[in-house]
Amino acid sequence: MTNVVIVDAIRTAIGKRNGALRHTHPVDLLVPILQQLVHRNGISENDVEDVVVGCATMIDEQGGNIGRLVTLAAGFPVEVPAYSVNRLCGSSQQAIHNAAQTILANDADIVIACGVESMSRVPMGSDIGEFSDSLMNTQTIVPQGFSAELIAKEWNVTRKELDEYSFLSHQKAMKAIDEGYFEREIISLNLESGNENGLFMMDEGVRRDTTIDKLSDLHAAFLPEEGVITAGNSSQISDGAAGLLLMSEQKANELSIKPRAKIIAKVVVGEDPVMMLTGVIPATKKVLKKADLRMEQIDVIEINEAFASVIKAWEKEIEADMNKVNPRGGAIALGHPLGASGARLATTLLHTLEDRGGRYGLQVMCIGFGMAIATIIERL
């Protein structure tokens, strides 16, 4: 049986909205990821048989099959194909799944799975027009922030719990930066355009001066009177890119490349589009069952911090050891460049597993309009 292995995983540092990456075209954000994945692993661009790019807002600078445009801009031979996939927040995690499925089907031996999003240059939701009558007559469509509020109410999560969790995310991210935990996974970007010059190598969104008191002073963003969801306990609007080099285990052995992990289970689920973000709960249960593992066997968990209420509800249902969850901070502190986040979480998951000497890693993300995606990897 073919095993799909992860040979490498890298990312850019994450830029905050209108921050250091605001002048960088999204194609140019992802180009160095592709180039580095090839060059640092001693393979040729010609060896890559497909490139799968996750992107959530495929319009304007991110339109036109950005995957193909990135591959051409990276200097890959024209014979190397590419395509783009949109599963909203889970886009580049879906890119990883698609790439793995291509290898499992023996359609290719080497595939790059990656993602990019420039939310500064291509605003979130700018690709959505009016909803159709048939959709609106069938479903209730609400903004994600209202779903986050409903989750907090359903699971009796207090504002204090949300702000405490968010503060901890910043504290863990600061520690990871200061102690160099991200250095192996971040590649430097040379910012030569606009007003930014020099190397960009540090996640920009972490608020070193934040406190629980400051977080508690923020106004509710969606329900001004009784709401608990604020900008401080939600993910940040961000820019960034990330990518993984995947191979069949046979091809890695043939090339004398030591694989770092293998993908052992992957699932997607649908969920009620009103509650919307609770899919992480059934997705976690389903992927654990598929891998024939128990939660206690998972050594590191990366769950996307779309909103703190999502994590707290998941915690109450799954009863995971929270010391294993987002140990280097999450999207509340680091940021959430939609199409890049899946590959970013996978990159951090792999490096954290290696640094901790763990065996199994779980990655799970909630997705807009009621879906979720989950992956389990095993460190080799």
From TrEMBL:
<dbReference type="Pfam" id="PF00108">
    <property type="entry name" value="Thiolase_N"/>
</dbReference>
<dbReference type="InterPro" id="IPR020616">
    <property type="entry name" value="Thiolase_N"/>
</dbReference>
<feature type="active site" description="Proton acceptor">
    <location>
        <position position="366"/>
    </location>
</feature>
<feature type="active site" description="Proton acceptor">
    <location>
        <position position="336"/>
    </location>
</feature>
<comment type="similarity">
    <text>Belongs to the thiolase-like superfamily. Thiolase family.</text>
</comment>
<dbReference type="InterPro" id="IPR020617">
    <property type="entry name" value="Thiolase_C"/>
</dbReference>
<dbReference type="GO" id="GO:0003988">
    <property type="term" value="F:acetyl-CoA C-acyltransferase activity"/>
</dbReference>
<keyword id="KW-0808">Transferase</keyword>
<dbReference type="InterPro" id="IPR016039">
    <property type="entry name" value="Thiolase-like"/>
</dbReference>
<dbReference type="InterPro" id="IPR002155">
    <property type="entry name" value="Thiolase"/>
</dbReference>
<feature type="active site" description="Acyl-thioester intermediate">
    <location>
        <position position="89"/>
    </location>
</feature>
<feature type="domain" description="Thiolase N-terminal">
    <location>
        <begin position="4"/>
        <end position="250"/>
    </location>
</feature>
<keyword id="KW-0012">Acyltransferase</keyword>
<protein>
    <submittedName>
        <fullName>Acetyl-CoA acetyltransferase family protein</fullName>
    </submittedName>
</protein>
<dbReference type="Pfam" id="PF02803">
    <property type="entry name" value="Thiolase_C"/>
</dbReference>
<dbReference type="InterPro" id="IPR020613">
    <property type="entry name" value="Thiolase_CS"/>
</dbReference>
<feature type="domain" description="Thiolase C-terminal">
    <location>
        <begin position="258"/>
        <end position="379"/>
    </location>
</feature>
